[in-house]
Amino acid sequence: MEPMSEPDVRIDPLTGSYVIVTPWRQSRPNLPEGSCPFCPGGLEAPEPYDVRWIPNRWPGLSGGRHEVILHSPQHHASFPSLGEAGAARVVELWAQRTVVLGARSDVAYVFVLENRGRAIGTTIDHPHSQIFAFGVIPPIPRAELTTQGCALCAEPDEALVVCREAGWLARVPWAPSWPYEILISTRGHQADLPTAGARLRTGLGVILVDGLKCLERLFGEDVPYMLWIHQRPTDGREWPTAHLHLHLAPVLRKPGTIRHLAAAELGAGVVFDPVDPEAAAAQLRGARHSVTA
Predict the structure, then answer these.
(1) Cβ-count burial of 187 within 10 angstroms (0-12 exposed, 13-18 middle, 19+ buried)?
(2) 30 assigned to some structural domain
(3) Strands (E), 57-127
(4) Which residues of 37-66 are buried (b: 16+ CB within 10 A; e: fewer)?
(5) pLDDT tens track of the chain, all 293 residues?
(6) Which of 51, 56, 204, 216 is deepest in the core (most CB within 10 A)?
(7) Residue 110 belongs to domain spanning
(8) Confidence (pTM)
């Protein structure tokens, strides 16, 4: 059998789940020793930069539809250490790449994500995020888009609200998949990063820094987390229920203890949340007050 050279999209006949087979990603570097490829002068960033996008050398999608966003030339930076201005530069680059990738005829959905920390399996410590430009709308965003009305425009349960800031609302979801998960959405109905405008994109940098500082107060400075963005598809349809939002999910259920997704979640599709969402929101509000005091 010839070795696979292009991503192979398969659909599980039992569940209908999408699986993309990419065996070459087994060869990507795992915490490489020596010089960091993302630091200025490294393999992927030979020139000085503030923020930078590069094609992923071990792509999950073909045709230049998988990119890496370098957040800072500083190897040990984080959104909180970059501050609001530094975080806003990253958000602006996310928006710019959404425009460029979304304009392609072979792209229907631009998906921005960050995996932070070795507990999640991050293979390079240097601060970075990724962008997948899917040819179809992935199942979870599609499920959100096909609901009646916009749940994010409804008045939130105040017991779940963490903060309102810079045109954004941060809350714990009513039914979170992850303990201490934070759902961040625009307070008005905005569809995507490009059309949100510069002021709201700057505000996203503000609330990202704020939210991550809260998580650091609860779990420690190197709290591992996942972040992903849901926005309007780029397939040319209207999608009136598309409401720009982010999920910020630490992978700890308490300091030093990882929250695993295991057989019940993966085999039955039922999530068991060991932390009361209202209690999580109260703890996050308390952490925020201690940060801003």
Answers:
(1) middle
(2) no
(3) 66-70, 109-116
(4) bbbeebebbeeeeebbbbebeebbbeeebb
(5) 555 567 888 999 998 889 999 988 888 878 777 899 999 999 999 999 999 999 999 999 999 999 999 999 999 999 999 999 999 999 999 999 999 999 999 999 999 999 999 999 898 999 999 999 999 999 999 999 998 899 999 999 999 999 999 999 999 999 999 999 999 999 999 999 999 999 999 999 999 999 999 999 999 999 999 999 999 999 999 999 999 999 999 999 999 999 999 999 999 999 999 999 999 999 999 999 876 65
(6) 204
(7) 8-23+35-292
(8) 0.94
User: What token pair was written down for 182?
Assistant: 């934070």
Residue 214: inside a domain? yes
Q: Which helix (H) or strand (E) holds 204?
A: helix 198-219
Residue with tokens 């039914």: 175
* 34's tokens: 């020596």
Instruction: Give me the half-sphere count of Cα atoms (radius 13 Å) on the Cβ side of residue 283.
Output: 19
Strand partners, 169: 164, 185
Measured in whole angstroms, the distance separating CA 45 from the mean position of its chain's CA atoms is: 23
Whether 187 and 166 have beta carbons less than 8 Å apart is answered as: no
Instruction: Give the residues across from 170 on adjacent strands.
Output: 163, 184
Closest to 49 measured CA to CA, from 60, 57, 41: 41
Quick check: helix, strand or coil at residue 186? strand
Mapped onto helix, strand or coil, the DSSP state of residue 37 is coil
3-class SS letters over 85-99:
HHHHHHHHHHHHHHH
The domain that holds 193 is classified in CATH as 3.30.428.10
Please name the amino acid found at residue 235. D
